[in-house]
Amino acid sequence: MSGTFRWQPLEHIIYGFAIHPLSQAVYSRPPTTQPGDGLVKQEAPSSVDHPSLEFIARLDVGDEIYAFEQCVDKHNVWYRGYVVSSTRSSFQQAQKDPSPSGGSIAQSLPNTSEEPEVAVAIFPRSHIHIRDELPDAEGRLAEFYARLTQGRDLYGRDRFAMETLREEDESAELEGHPRSSSAKARQPANGATPILTGPNNAPLDLSASPIEKPTPPRPSIKSGDDTASGQSQPLVDEIASALREWHSLLFVYLAKRDYKLFNTVKEHLEALHLGRRQLLSDTLSVDETSKLRRACVAHLVRGNVAQGLDIIFYHVYLELRAFVASPCSPGETVEVYFSLYSKSGGRFLTEEFCAILNHNGVLARDSLAKIRTLFNDLGQQDVQDTIYLVCRIIRNGSMKLSSSGSRSSSTDFRAGSVDDVDSIATVKVQGGLDGTGSFRRPFGCAVMELQQLARLAAGQDETTAKEHTMPIFVPTNEASFSTLHQDLISSNTKEFEKSPRADMLAITVKVFHGDTQAIVKENPTLLQDTPITSRLGFPDVVFPGDARNEVYIKLWSGEFNNPAGGSSVRIRKSVASLAGSSINPSNVEVSCEVRRQSGQIVEGAIALGTGEPAITRFHSLVFHRNNAPTYGELIKITVPEKIMPECHLFFTFRNRSSKEKASMGSRLADLQASDRPFAFAYLPLFPEKQAFLADGSHTLVLYKADKLNTITVNEYYHAPAVHSPAEPLESFATSNSLTRNLAPLRDTFTIRSFLCSTQFTANGVLVDLLNWERLDDKNALLAALGKFTFVGEMEIVKFLRDIFDSLFAILVSPINQSGEMDDLVFNALVTVLAIVQDRRFNNFQPVLDIYIENHFNCAAASYHMLHSMNRLLADPAGRDTASPLRAAIKVWHYIFKFIIRARELQKTKEVGMGATTEHLDATFKREIMSHLGEVNKLMSKSTLSSVIGTQTLALQHFASILPELADLFSQVELVSMVTAFVNASPIAKGKIVIWKLLLCLQLARGFLFDSPQSRALLLESIVGWIKPHFGGYDEYMHVQPEDGEAKRRAVWRLAGDLRGDGAAILLRLWETIGWPETLSAQVGAVTRYGGYQIPLISLVEQVLNLCLSHHDQLRSNAVQILYSMIVSEYHQSGNFNQIETELVNKLDKLFMSDTRGDDISRAFFVSQLRHLFDSSTLDDQLKSHVGQFLDSVDLFLELLLSVRELPDGEEYQDDRVIATLRLMNFIRRIGRDEIYIKYVHQLVNMHLQSHNYVEAALTLKLHSDLHEWDLNAFVDPMPELDLPRQSQFVRKETLCLLILDYLGKGKAWESAIEICKELAEQHSEVTQRLAEILVHQANLLEHIVADQRYYSEYFRVAFYGNFPVAIRDKHFIYRGYEWEKLGAFCERMLNKHP
Question: 527 — phi, psi (to 5°)?
């Protein structure tokens, strides 16, 4: 019996995905379309070759579906619609281009942006999961559905129109599908045409009545990962997108047999899936949610890095909406510079974005343009720090602000006045010497923390644009303008103030993440033609093809002295002594331009920042009457790379007159005098001709400029450009490089340079290597090769191909005919390969593969590389060979890629040589076999403990060389090599067992198991290798609690029983993985130790937690495990320092932060552990060390408990201070500085709460005394104290300044003077800093003389009787409160201790 059904349109397109696979063989016949009224008829099953079976969808789990029609029969609901499969196309593409195991996946990875496979087909409801309902793009589906419900024809046809078309005619309908421009629709199996009928079912003549059939509705595409939850938590949808993309790539990794990458991605997938579920559950606290978001973002980044996919970069969009300030008068301009600043790093992260405004607050060069930029390429590491937006404001006008002509406030840019735009736009902003007499003068600064960036990095929704205001502050002393942003960030209020001429800036900030080009493309209205402000330096991950060629110059500071007295040398003492000069050198302006060696000035080579056109000459700030200005101005040099090697920077120095009101004639004379430079300096960009100028500070030599017009480029270009510490300034006077016109001055000028280039390098060693043929002698080349390992990683990846070419050219050059450079070249190659293999640069692995395949041409390199490797293997434990050998094994597969490719190149040269080629092939194979024989000798060494690490690395990486050897040897020969290698390994112990088993796993998953012949040979060996590791656990497999006893227990006792049984199982398992009892007994241990316990020693924290449990058996067993850990660590390393450190840190955390443990658990823990060591016959030195350690631990815990158990309340504050001080003294004696510092600051806070500022200062000095006045030694950051990583000098100085503040509040001015003296001694060479310290010291002396102080009385108190342990039977000196007498003090003490 058959039933008749109709295909009907759905009201909305159903979106979902397949949850079960489906193929044509599952259903013998689906519903088929019948002529007449769009009906379908369900018939009895028949053979699978029915044409209708062609239109049943092939579904794989995860395929997306978009259904627009349905048909209901008695068995199921059928849908008709689009099937979108990306998994199948990716997997098929991967199978077309297989890659052997161990090869690089990055090169052969299919393009993940390839369009998916799309088809129109039918599928049952039971095989899909419906996720959403979407409207169709044209809005036709709702209209069809309405017609259906109203009983009208679906497509608006009359009764003689064409009937519903069958699926056979829809093969070309997918061309307009939005998801795929190259969709692959399934074609009908036969050439049947639709049956068209007219009245009485008569055939209809198409030529007489042509009717267009309607195309299938297209869905209004919505990202398959968009969810309602994603509207509030974008990270949820971001994770879903990554899960979908990475899941499809898993099939690729399986097809490539890249199991390592497969497992890595699988772990990230599982972690992200769990994290997404936790985010959706919305059951975590705010702190837990924040931590989870950060962890998920970290997994996304690491997963993308591992697969070579897009890295998450952050970008900050900024628009200046209003400038509410009036720093300039009509006809003058103001420059605003925006940049991003890292607080903890103490450095700027980006270039500066520059906008030059007129006095009306609009852009001077284009009044209608928006002032906006996009700061790009902030990495994950950057946004983990606190990022500030910094705006520096510079006015361009008269020396002093005029009191007239200022506006009360500026207008909003969106509605700003433009009355004077035409006149202002013509002002030469950077040409203050054009007759206008304008100066670039410091004005103010504004800062704002970018909290949006931090929240977005944590996964919160911060993608909307937000408006902010930034208050403007001006410096109290313009000399500190260059560091005003730091004073604002650190709230150093004495350095800045508000000005009536400056209110605030109104800005809009929006944060993006992703690829810059994609972001600009997705937001054309907002970002089209928006200037991109680049990061200073390269981002965290560098990609091949990245091109930058920029030089950043920061004009830092100058010393323009005017000392009295004469000089006995020819050098001019100062600019004031210049002949005919009477100008006070206090308003110094520095000008900079770029010149070629011919003297030609390079036009438009200097950029103030993005947003403004490049200029030819830059003029610095002018500081009023300042002989030692600190400019702190950043400029960018952009010169074509072809002419950059012949360019140099040319600086001129002028005294700008501050006279503003004079007659026209006198003013012109003043301007001409002001225009005349008093000194000049130069700095070549390539001082050594080949290497670029080194990054860092450069103190320039200034030369007298009274005859500047007569000095040619050739005269000054060969004169000293920078001060050299090894060459005193006085020696310049007699230098042969100075002509009669060149007279050096004592004045100096310091700049800082930074190169960000993919074309040039400042590393001299790398330059020598790349230009090795130009070196004078062999020794210079040997020196360059020897120093190559110290070249920076970023420099190496920039010149990857050139470095390889140079190294291989040296290898086969006549200069290396004796082979003395083989090992140096080999070590350099290993260094480069190790960098490319690093995950930060794995994007360059395809570049390396392409180089080996297409560009490498050194056919003779194979024997050199094999011999170098064999020389390392000959002495694997040697002082000079052990480390290079381990490094070489880590890149073993790349070494063999080069070796095998070299042999292939050699064979192409031997074509036609006949027997000679066969002989050379056999010789090459013998060389390879000889090398592997040396490796087997290494693996067989069982007496040298120093080679265990090298053996472990060999086990890790041996499988990676097999695909390369497969090009040379048969699979049977490879099985023989593998068997010989593994059998050569000694009786395994420790971690080497794990790697041996992992090697077996790699072999079982590798290509040798694909061949029946090699699999049969290898299988028996693998079984033999892993069998010895199966027997030790059988007797423990069925250990479980007794059911009868558990049932008789009450519920409140059940947990105790389970802990007891669990403790027993834990101890038995722990002993099982140790060495046999016989070996343990030989060393005198009372429990089994060593073996697999050694890798698990890192679990000491968790074991210590169990040692403090209140369950007796669990506590006892945990102490035994801790005992075996100590014994294992001692016999492995000769000490147990690592366990000591972890124990002390964990005990401090458990007892103080987590308030775990008490006197009972402390006593049991110490006594039980001591008993185990006392009852053993271990090494006396170990027992003695453990005894001393336990004594310290016992006292440490006693002191911790004495602090913790004090009652809360102000009356016990003194007792808390005393107990903390005793604890600190003990911690200091045992050398735990990190814990000591923590308690120092706890004690400081206690004193501050009690307003005991002098005690707080003296306590803080305990921390300061731990550091030395050393600029070269660095200390780790302390986030809890807001202290970044800094030198010991800076850390000690920071603490001393805080001590001074506390001593001042406590009126201990005499002690503060001693601190000032110490600071003054250390800053004796820094004039400005020394002046500040001496001024403060003078103020302290004035306080001593003028201020009245009241001294407290002191009381000696002894405690006898039932007092707390910390004070019992002890004497103390107490300081009374101000005006507190004996009676009041006694009453206070009795109230405290009744």
Answer: -110, -10
